[in-house]
Amino acid sequence: MSHETSDPDRTASERNRDQSSPSGSRRRRECGPWFVSGFGGLSVCVLVAWWFAFPDQHTATGFALSIVSTGIPSLGLGWGGVRLARSDVDAHRYARVCKWCFGGAIGFLAINLPTMIVFPWYDLAGTISWAHFAVTTGAVGGFAVGYVEARAIQREVEATAATVRANQLEDERELLTYLNDLLRHEVLNSAQIIGGHATLLREECDDDRVRNRLTTIERKSDDLIDVIEDVRAMLNANRGPETAAVVDLTDVIEDQVAAYRARFGDAVFKTELPDSAPVSGNEGLTWVFANLLENAIEHNDSESPRVRVTVETASAAETKPETGTVTVTIADNGSGIPEKTRETLFERKSKNHGLGLYLSRILADRYGGTVELDETGPDGSVFVVTLPHASPDADEPDERDEFETAI
Fold first, then answer.
1. Structure pTM?
2. Do 290 and 385 contact (CB within 8 A), yes or no?
3. pLDDT tens digits along 234-291
4. Location of each CATH 3.30.565.10 domain in the chain
5. Distance CA 31, CA 36 (A)
6. Half-sphere exposure of residue 283, counting CA atoms within 13 Å on the CB side?
7. Which one is the CATH code of 240-406: 3.40.50.150, 3.30.565.10, 3.30.70.330, 3.40.50.1260?
8. How far is the C-alpha of 6 from the C-alpha of 329, rounded, in Å?
9. Contact 122/83 with Cβ under 8 angstroms?
10. Are 324 and 314 in contact (CB under 8 A)?
């Protein structure tokens, strides 16, 4: 959806003309800066013609006076047109700047005209030079007023747009918080209650057919809980200021590896972790590595699944932490990823309501990092996650408490 900010300087007829002939209107607007520069160029041509028409005025004083009075202002107009074209002034305001420029020229000439009539110059050369000076100086003054006005209006429009956008972001954050609470208190709790009652009934039931149906309810309830947790992870990652906090990635990975060791007893996990690896983010980073670790085990068809997790801190981070990165490598010994699925590996799957690797990519991007498949083959796959290194001296609020409160 696109939104057009209303411009009080543009009349309804102008807007209608723009809509009826957008290309022609755009060309007219874009000619604005060149009109100003062309005005300056024409003024220079008039000055040169004046020199040729009145050679007897080629004294040092006359030449210097003509340069100062008309030559420099003319060059200033030429530069002003280029400046206008390169500025952030909206093209819709070019016409107004040109009107100020032209109006200033006519206005200042009109102010000087009575004096020129009552007290005329002693010769024609001086009169023409005087008129030329009035027109050029007035054009420069008018352009200056128009340009400053256009810049002021532009800044006001941008400030208003920034305020509106800030209000929209605040509303979006409030909506995300509401949705998070709704998922937690209504949907997630209901799904857990359904799964719990199904488990209790299955344990008390002797009818195999009913037990099978209750098992299906349990399984679907668990799947629903997984989806809810994935969605809530994305909501938490987009809550705003919390994403700029500092998290020790070593602690996050140690916790996740310990959890998956307990969950998959037949899998072998090996880690190479530094004592500390602070990164920018929040506890939502756990979902990045939870999904990658789960993918490395659940899709591993080897007799003895193995996963190696390595964390490396870029050397640049030792001297300038704010410019460094932390790289996490997750390698498994599976049979590799089929070539036909590699291109869509990090896309959301329509046949599977879980977000999986898609969530890992979205979250990593949200935290200013990347996640990608580095290599894959019959000997296994290697995923690499890169995240911005954070200074360990930065303010580090108790993110775990904040995140657990949120969920």
1. 0.48
2. no
3. 666 665 544 457 889 999 999 999 998 988 888 899 999 999 899 887 767 888 888 8
4. 240-406
5. 9
6. 14
7. 3.30.565.10
8. 51
9. no
10. yes
